[in-house]
């Protein structure tokens, strides 16, 4: 899984380029499985995708829903998820502009897996914290 910093990159990485062959306009760049998993398993992506899978959600709602995320990181993560085809962004011509994010069909396909993963983490977070404490005590500090 991601360390949380893979949500920042907006430019395509070399991992998305199949070999060294140049791509013609409109030709898709093939991403590695690891790169896809890093994006959907990113520190902030899971919470955003779970929230957006419930229906259209606004930026401020996401800001409240995703605990600890900064406005800048939320903006970058939303942009990356939209770029990857996991979110669709709709701007309504109002003053001030209203923007909503909705999970795309491929993101909705992920929903059950993401909920299962977050539920597992919630159920086992205390046991993991205790295991870390015991490990650190036995090994003289943090890893």
From TrEMBL:
**Superkingdom of this entry's organism?**
Bacteria
Cell membrane as a keyword? no
Signal peptide (UniProt feature, chain positions): none
- PROSITE patterns per record: HTH_HXLR
- Annotated InterPro entries: HTH_HxlR, WH-like_DNA-bd_sf, WH_DNA-bd_sf
> Residues in domain HTH hxlR-type?
31-129
The family database entries (Pfam families) matched by this protein are listed as:
HxlR (PF01638)
Decide whether keyword Transcription regulation is in the record. Answer: yes
GO MF, one example: DNA binding
Keywords carried by this UniProt record: DNA-binding, Transcription, Transcription regulation
The UniProt entry, under PANTHER family, shows: TRANSCRIPTIONAL REGULATOR, MARR FAMILY, TRANSCRIPTIONAL REGULATORY PROTEIN
Q: What is this protein called?
A: Transcriptional regulator, HxlR family
- Tell me the lineage of the source organism: Bacteria, Bacillati, Actinomycetota, Actinomycetes, Micromonosporales
């Amino acid at each position: 899984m991601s360390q949380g910093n893979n949500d920042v990159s907006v430019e395509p990485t070399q991992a998305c380029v199949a070999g060294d062959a140049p791509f013609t306009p409109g030709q898709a760049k093939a991403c590695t499985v690891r790169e896809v998993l890093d994006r959907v398993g990113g520190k902030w992506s899971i919470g955003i995708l779970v929230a957006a899978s419930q229906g259209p959600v606004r930026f401020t709602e996401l800001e409240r829903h995703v605990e600890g995320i900064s406005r800048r990181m939320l903006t970058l993560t939303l942009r990356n998820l939209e770029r990857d085809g996991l979110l669709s962004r709709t701007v309504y011509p109002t003053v001030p502009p209203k923007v909503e994010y909705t999970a795309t069909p491929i993101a909705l396909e992920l929903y059950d897996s993401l909920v299962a993963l977050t539920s597992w983490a919630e159920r086992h977070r205390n046991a993991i914290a205790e295991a870390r404490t015991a490990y650190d005590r036995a090994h003289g500090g943090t890893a």
